[in-house]
Fold:
Amino acid sequence: MNILLWALQILAALLFAASGVMKVFLFDKISADVPSFGALPRQAWMALGVVELVCVVGLIAPIAFHWHLTLTAVAAAILAIESLVFIGVHVKYRETASIIMSAVLGLVMAFVAYGRWG
Structure:
C-alpha cells in the first residue's frame, strides 16, 4: 500500500506542480487558450496556483523526511477540495476532458489523504 501511495503522490505532485506553475507564472500565455480561465479573476487563479505549489511540497516532504506526517494527508485533502472547485468551473464551460481530469485527480487525492491519515 505504501508503494502505491508513493507512486500516486509523485504522479499527482508532478501534475499539480505543472498546473501551479502555469497558473502563477504563465497565466497570460495559457489563459487565452482556455475559456474557463475567465470564470475567476487572475488573482484567484494565482492564489490557487500558489496553493497547488505549497501542497506539492506537502505531498512529498513530510513523508520523505519523516516530519509531521499528517501534513501529507492535509495537503492531499486540500488538493481534493480544490479539484471540486475546478470541476465546477469546467462544468460551467462544458470542458469535458478537464472535468474528467479534475475528477480523477480529486479521487486520487482523496485516496492519498485517506491512506496517509494517521
